[in-house]
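USER: My hope is that you can spare some time for a protein that puzzles me. I am handing you a single protein, as its sequence and its fold in token form. Walk me, if you will, through where the backbone shape changes along the chain. The protein I mean follows directly.
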Amino acid sequence: MTSMDFELSPDQVALQEAARDLLDDRSGHDQVRAHLASGRPYDEDLWKALCEQGWLGIAVPEADGGVGLGWVEAAILLEQVGRHTAPVPFLPSLLALTALSAAERPLTEWVAGLVSGERIGCVGWSKQADAVIAERSGDNWTVSGRIGPVEGAAVADIAVVVTPAGVVAVDLDTVGRPAAEPAMDGTRVLSWLRFDGAPATYVGGADLAVAILDRGAVGASAEMLGGSDRVLEMAVQYAKDRVQFDQPIGSFQAIKHRCADMVVDVEGMRSATWYAAWAIAAGDPDASAAASTTKVWTSDAAKRVMASGLQVHGGIGFTWEHDLHLYMKRSQFDRLNFGDATYHRERLAGLLRSRLLSGSSVF
């Protein structure tokens, strides 16, 4: 039986601190605001800095040129990306690497390009299973359909697409990249992937599709955790600094309750996310259930935290000049990305039902 430690190891804490320091320096308030004003799809300088630190290869085996760690470490990095609203397509490339490094036949060139950051990946997944169809003719595959919105597709070189027939990869350098769509979250670039008989490479079957969904759900949850934790900090600090009736508003019972509820939500998000990341890294049979549980909790909790943060800040929270809106907008997409809470409740119910039918315990 595999055991887990609910505390991060010293090496993981060091990774967390290093990631926070790097993003404090390169994705702080001024840098994110400058990016929003630039109109660029992502921050190329920040992307280069992350790649130089080996972030893209964090969960890729050393044999494939990666760092050889796992999804706990990946979740640590993603939490910091969410905390800093970092305008880079980190999660899409990380998930594309997950798929390509586990391909049934070696895709060495693509993996190497993504690990180095010279190429960017994206992942097309939809809760509508037949949104995109892959077809085989001899040794050749093609893909047709429309899927999205997909983060990073407008700047990606490789698209990994989950279809009913399996997971396929499409070289966007060959078939063309989609245009960026208008998005509420200016720190991300979103697009619809459209294919009409585009040539594709078969990557893997149903097990790989499940692995992508689990990691995508946990990755989005980790970003929501980071953003919610930052909003909690902002709300508490504002409650200390803002004075009404000659006393800080944090002394008022209604504000105290809001902040206390935010703490409960954020700490629940942290426990659920780290457990699910550990389950994936350990190959635990409960990994899918843990991933869906995490996505349910973090999606609902992030919504509550953002609403409470807005209430604590009052009128200033609505303004463009305040950073709160960046986190609110980013969490909106994270809540939907790789399945919303409703989808994952249904998925979790299906997983538990299968256990009961097989005579296994759900606990």
Summary: The mean pLDDT is 94. The longest strand covers residues 190-204. DSSP finds twelve helices and eight strands in the chain. The two ends are 15 Å apart (CA to CA).
